Amino acid sequence: MVKRALRRILPGLADEPDPARRDLGPLADNEAYVPGHGDPSYAVRSYDLDLTLKLAGNHVQGRAELLIEPLVDPLPRLQLDLHGLKVTSVTVDGRPAKHSRRGDRLTVTPRQPLKGGQESLLVVHYSGNPSQVRGLDGLAGWEELDDGLIVASQPHGAPSWFPCNDRPDDKAAYRIAVTTDSGYRVVANGSLVETRRRSSRTTWVYEQPEPMATYLATVQVGRYDTLDLEPGPGPDGLVPIRLHYPAALTRQVAAGPMMRHRAMLNTFTEAFGPYPFARYDVVITPDVLEIPLEAQTLSIFGSNFARPGWQQERLIAHELAHQWFGNSLTLGQWRDIWLHEGFACWSEWLWSERSGGRRAADLAREHYRGLADKPQDLYLVDPTPQLMFDDRVYKRGGVLLQALREHVGDGAFFAFLRTWCERYRYGTITTPAFVAEAAADLGIAPDWFDPWLQHKTLPEWGS
C-alpha cells in the first residue's frame, strides 16, 4: 500500500490584493490555520498516556492523565481536542466531572471551578478506532500501514489518538505506554525506560521529559529490527542513535544514507550547539511514504528513503535538523512555519557543503532562481493555511538564511545561530523575536528582513 503524503503542497486560493508590505502586527493566528483546536485558558504541564492497542481491527483503549494549570482564575470549564474516540469517564482531582462532546471538542466541567495557577489532575478514559483528522491543509494523525501504524500529527492530528490541548505553544512533558502484540516493536518519543512482556502482549514505556508540542507526539508500531550506530568523534558523538527497520531492508539500510546520521549529528552540533535531547531514533517503515516527517527525538521515513542518492540524503538531514528547529525551538503560531522549515531546508545545504558536496551558496542561488520563476503570491511571515507547507516557504526561508550568512559573515552568523538555539532551548519562538534578536546580535537594521518576510515579491539578491 502506498501511503498518502504526510504533509501536502496545495494550490493557493484566489489572489488577494498585493500590498507592498505585510505588517508584523496581529496576523492570522492559530485559529485561522488550525480552526477549532486548543484552549488558551489553561496549560498542560504533563501527559501520561496508557494505550492498549489491538492492531487487528485498529482498536485503542486509552487512559490519559493530564496535569493542568489554569491560566485564568477561576476556570469553570475547559476544552480538550479529541477526534472520533468515545469518552467513558472524566475525573478532575479524583472526582467525577461532567463532560460533553461537540464535534472534536470535549468540554469538561469540574464540580468546583479550578483556581488559577494551581495544578489539577485531569483523567480521561476513552476507546475506539482512531482515524485521521481533516484540516485546511489535508489529513493528519493516526494511520494504519499494511502491517503496523504510523502517527503523523503535524499540524492538527494529535487529537486522533489522545485528548489534548492542541496548541503548538502549549509544550509539556510526556510518558507514553503502549501495550500491543509481542511480535511488534513500539517506538515513541523520548527514551525507552521499560518493557514488560506478559504472554502474547508486551508493554513499551517511553518518557520524554523535555517539553514537547502535541503535534510532535507520536507512536510508531511495526515488525522492526534495530541497529545502534557506533559512537563517533565530535561533541555529540555519544548521543545514542538507533535505526528501526523491517528485516527485508537490512542490507539496503546498512549500505545507504541512513548510516550517515552520526556525521550529520556532529555537523549540526558544531553549527547549532548541543543536540537538545537524550537520544535520536529513526523509523523506516515497510511501506512507501511520499515524504518523511520528524517528531521529537525521532524521524519517520518510508522504505523508499533507504536508497542511496542526494534526494534521500538531503531529507534525512532535513528531518534531523528539525530536532533543533521545530522540536527544541517551537513556533507559537503556525504562521511562523518558516522558522522550522526554512531552517531545516538550509540545513540540507549546510550538510552538502560540510560533507564534500555542493556549497550552500550555490544551492541557495539555484533555488533562488527557481523561486523567481514561480508565482510571487505568498508572504513568508504568514503564508496562509493553504500554503503553509508550500515548497516556496521552505526554499525562501532557506535562501533568506544564506543571504543573512553572506551579509554578516560566517563567524557572526554561526555564533548567532548557536545563541538563538541556546536562548530558546525547549521554548517558543516567533518571527518578531528572531528579527529583533538577529538585528541586535548581528548589528544590522531590523528592516533588512522586510523584503524577505513581508513582501510577496522576491527581493533582489546577489548573482
TrEMBL record:
Protein name: Aminopeptidase N
PANTHER family found in the cross-reference section: LEUKOTRIENE A-4 HYDROLASE
Family as reported in the entry's similarity comment: Belongs to the peptidase M1 family.
Residues covered by the Peptidase M1 membrane alanine aminopeptidase domain: 263-436
Domain of life: Bacteria
Zinc recorded as keyword: yes
MF terms in GO: alanyl aminopeptidase activity; metallopeptidase activity; zinc ion binding
InterPro entries: Aminopeptidase_N-like_N, Aminopeptidase_N-like_N_sf, M1_LTA4H, Peptidase_M1, Peptidase_M1_dom, Peptidase_M4/M1_CTD_sf
EC number: 3.4.11.2
GO cellular component: cytoplasm
UniProt keyword terms in alphabetical order: Aminopeptidase, Cytoplasm, Hydrolase, Metal-binding, Metalloprotease, Protease, Zinc
Region (Disordered), start-end ranges: 13-36
Cofactor(s) demanded: Zn(2+)
Active site as annotated: E319 (proton acceptor), Y394 (proton donor)
Statement: the UniProt record of this protein carries the keyword Cytoplasm: yes
The organism of origin for this protein: Kineosphaera limosa NBRC 100340
Residues holding Zn(2+): H318, H322, E341
Subcellular location: Cytoplasm
Reaction(s) the record says it catalyses: Release of an N-terminal amino acid, Xaa-|-Yaa- from a peptide, amide or arylamide. Xaa is preferably Ala, but may be most amino acids including Pro (slow action). When a terminal hydrophobic residue is followed by a prolyl residue, the two may be released as an intact Xaa-Pro dipeptide
GO terms (BP aspect): proteolysis
